Structure to design on (371 residues):
């Protein structure tokens, strides 16, 4: 169900999308598949709510954002279960992520009370110049599938704290925690201040980004998506905030503590099945430690337990979808075919779900796509 103007409602078309459990491939939910009509309703609601929400006091916004933080904190067990089910993250290792989610709202709630202007000096006789920060209007927030709730809070929190209204579109792959967030927010914010539209990026997301009454778009996603959104937003000069993917390098010098390096890489590189823009997935090592590091890292990665996210001993769950599984497999296969040495992993895990074995490649070509 979408959440628009304080109400949960199906898509106008009646169409739905399936939501899958990546650990099994099974359907776990049917959710609204929104189109332009639903996006229009959400933006209209947010536009109307902006006239009063933008005039609320910092104290009022502080109190409501703090109340949402309290509601999330009281619902953490359920939210973690939904994240493990819908994203495939091992339940045993996601506590810190959800602690940060609560803290995000607390931080931005407090920030709402420190929004001040600044005198800029006398530039004309008998005039005083100053800077004043005013809310923009309706903010379109598009959250990714790798951190669906946490990244949503980074978008919603500052927008609401500064007097803007929000239309959130989560990834069609991972909408469950966003739906729960809307349920928690329903009794806290006035109707229209926070809205949720569900659906595909190519339809729902595109309609939201192109909407003439949206003042700014905030998106976390891949570079290709970011380019399309920036191009669409330029048609009516929307402001755009882009947080896009990357390939994070780690440089290991000859005097490094190899044991500490291996421990850190084995944990950080494969957290969330490596689906993280900050995952240290490229290791550049000095000649004095290269062979030792490759051998030890291979052993550590081979020892990682892969499987059911609800198993307390599992360190690595599935990737998010069959498409992602195929994409990873293709990149590894092409790297090996081009001469990279595969020291562990490198295969789709047999059985149900979208699993790929944790993998180490040594000496891939520097111009390889996987690098």
């Amino acid at each position: 169900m979408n959440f628009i103007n304080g109400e949960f409602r199906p898509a106008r078309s009646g169409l739905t999308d399936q939501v899958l459990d990546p650990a099994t491939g099974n359907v776990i939910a049917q959710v609204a598949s929104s189109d332009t009509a639903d996006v229009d309703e959400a933006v209209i609601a947010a536009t109307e709510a902006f006239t009063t929400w933008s005039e609320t006091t910092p104290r009022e916004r502080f109190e409501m954002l703090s109340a949402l933080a309290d509601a999330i904190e009281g619902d953490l067990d359920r939210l973690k279960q939904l994240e493990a089910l819908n994203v495939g993250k091992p339940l045993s290792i996601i506590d810190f992520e959800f602690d940060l989610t609560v803290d995000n709202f607390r931080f931005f709630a407090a920030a709402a009370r420190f929004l001040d202007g600044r005198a800029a000096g006398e530039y004309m006789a008998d005039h005083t110049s100053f800077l004043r920060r005013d809310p923009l209007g309706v903010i379109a927030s598009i959250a990714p599938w790798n951190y669906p709730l946490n990244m949503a809070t980074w978008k919603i929190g500052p927008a609401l704290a500064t007097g803007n209204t929000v239309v959130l579109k989560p990834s069609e792959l991972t909408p469950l925690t966003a739906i729960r967030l809307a349920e928690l927010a329903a009794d806290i914010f006035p109707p229209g201040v926070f809205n949720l539209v569900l659906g595909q990026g190519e339809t729902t997301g595109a309609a939201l980004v192109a909407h003439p009454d949206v003042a700014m778009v905030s998106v976390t996603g891949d570079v290709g998506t970011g380019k399309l959104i920036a191009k669409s937003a330029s048609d009516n000069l929307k402001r755009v905030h882009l947080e896009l993917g990357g390939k994070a390098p780690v440089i290991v010098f000859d005097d490094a503590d190899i044991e500490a390096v291996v421990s850190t890489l084995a944990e950080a590189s494969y957290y969330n099945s490596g689906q993280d823009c900050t995952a240290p997935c490229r290791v550049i090592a000095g000649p004095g430690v290269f062979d030792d590091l490759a051998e030890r890292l291979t052993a550590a990665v081979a020892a990682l337990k892969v499987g059911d996210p609800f198993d307390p001993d599992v360190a690595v769950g599935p990737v998010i979808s069959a498409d992602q599984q195929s994409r990873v497999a293709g990149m590894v296969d092409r790297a090996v075919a081009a001469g990279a040495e595969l020291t562990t992993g490198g295969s789709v895990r047999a059985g149900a779900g979208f699993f790929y074995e944790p993998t180490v490649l040594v000496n891939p070509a520097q111009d390889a796509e996987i690098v």
